[in-house]
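Protocol step 4 of 6: structure prediction from sequence.
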Amino acid sequence: MSFVKKNPRPCLTLYLIVSFLLLGSSSPAFPLRTLQPGNQVPSFTLPTLGGGEASVLGEDGRITIILFWSTDSDSKLKRGVDLLRTLQAIGESYGEQGVTVTSVNVDKNNRDVIRQLIERDGITVPVLLDEKEEMYGAYGLFVLPTVVIVDRDGTLTTAIGYTHGMHDMVMGDIQILLGLKTVEELKKELNPEEAIEAPDNVKKAQRHLNLGRKLMGKGLMDMAGGEFEKAVQLDPGNAEAHAELGGFHTRRKEYEKALAELEKAVELDPESIQARFALGVLYREKGEPDKAISEFEGVLKLESAHSQTFHELGAVFEDRGEIDKALENYRKALAIVFAEESAASIEAKHSESAP
């Protein structure tokens, strides 16, 4: 008899509440909870790394690029420094055309480490310190690093959470704002594969993948699995198709097949949140909690506010009898879901009251 059967979940109520809320929640791609494009952004005056204080937003009439970054993990540190270099290049190229670049670090009591990084890499982008997380909270950030672009009139143009091709996306958005490039030109540059007709097998595979997802959403699991298998056969390089097929096999408790598909998905896309999350679920169901925790922690390094991952971590710790850790993770999942719901409610009220 398993541990869980002997000891019914002491956290059952919280587990069910989080599970119910997650059914109607999805993690949005947009990295800000409290702001949307077109909103007037709040301005802050923060301490600078060099001493004194400075306004985060540039002078009136200038475009401002703000990088929010952290050094609390190796991956965030590397990504943040790489983006600082990109912003520095943008500032040098377009400063005379009205572009201001700055950065906001959200670490607490880590000034010496930040200073060493900046000096080592010759970074000249200003570093402001949000050690009390006031700006972090006001903007509703949940992905680090994130780049925020504010137009000349102080309205939010866009915000980009860390993703592949982010450097080119930031550069492209600035070139559009400056009138140097059209949206269509940028799309062709960022997605050259779209400008070229995709092979028939790739297009057919995508259709099977999309159909499988729709069928899964309707509870038609076996039919969905058939579509995922066709997608993988037609396009073996499609990481999403392998991840979906792996999830299907996990639901069928065909664990070896699931593991093979999910490992292939990670091989094709090492930063696939979908595949790594599914691997965590698989290991939890197989009774391998250490591997499950490792995969879930990997997901959180890629997306620090992934509510479903905190929910699953809570379940893993509860299965192990570590109730304090279980409750901590369930509460984190709840906090993220409620924050997303609050942001959506605020946005809806704003839209209703707008003339």
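Step 5 (inspection) to follow. The chain has 16 helices and seven strands.
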